[in-house]
Design a protein that fits this description.
Helix content is 30%, strand content 41%. It is an alpha+beta fold and 199 residues long.
């Protein structure tokens, strides 16, 4: 099954029987990002009634109903992001209660609808397993290295005694150009594994 995520963060809002449902789709790289993003939303929407959410990062899936009846908020949000094969995503739905109770079925429909509509506002991108690398080389190799890396995302460049690049590269692409890089006697450090957008 291919891994996918959203291209950009999205905010979308619907109103059902005077209750406001504000969905936030947020790209995340790891679970550590989540608490800070939730805390910030609770400050930004400080008088909201509920902050229900679900997220998927790798094999980890979690959700919270945040005071709504069990199974009426967090699970429907998770179901939508799961059914779209999304990962590295946090979806928070902020609710301002409008005074009219929606009932369990109404809540499930409302939370599902606002997330489905939010996904229409962003592009879905495919992810591939990859690596973050740090490479170091001498100035005389600059042209050659830039040529080898012409279609690679160079995230950081430093020009000191030597040149240092930090790059994100899919595993497939790395296997393809590893030999070329090593032929140029580069110092290659693998910083960590990552997921990279491929479209």
């Amino acid at each position: 099954m291919k891994m996918q995520t959203i291209k950009k963060n999205v905010t979308n809002e619907i109103i059902i029987n005077k209750s406001r449902f504000i969905a936030k789709l947020i790209k995340i790289n790891n679970e550590n990002d989540i608490k800070e993003k939730l805390d910030n939303l609770k400050i930004e929407y400080k008088d909201a009634t509920h902050y229900c959410y679900a997220y998927i990062v790798g094999n980890v899936k979690r959700f919270s109903d945040d005071g709504e009846p069990s199974g009426t908020a967090g699970m429907p949000i998770l179901n939508v992001i799961e059914s779209n094969n999304l990962t590295n995503i946090l979806c928070v739905v902020i609710r301002y209660f409008g005074g009219i109770k929606l009932g369990a079925g109404g809540l499930v429909r409302a939370y599902t609808k606002v997330v489905v509509e939010s996904l229409k506002e962003t592009q879905i991108v495919t992810l591939a397993k990859g690596l973050n690398l740090k490479i170091e080389f001498t100035y005389d190799k600059l042209k050659t290295i830039d040529n080898i890396l012409k279609n690679i995302n160079i995230k950081y460049k430093e020009y000191d005694n030597n040149i240092i690049y930090e790059i994100s590269i899919t595993n497939d692409k790395y296997a393809e150009i590893k030999k070329e890089l090593e032929t140029n006697s580069l110092n290659i450090d693998i910083l960590d594994q990552t997921l990279i957008e491929t479209n």
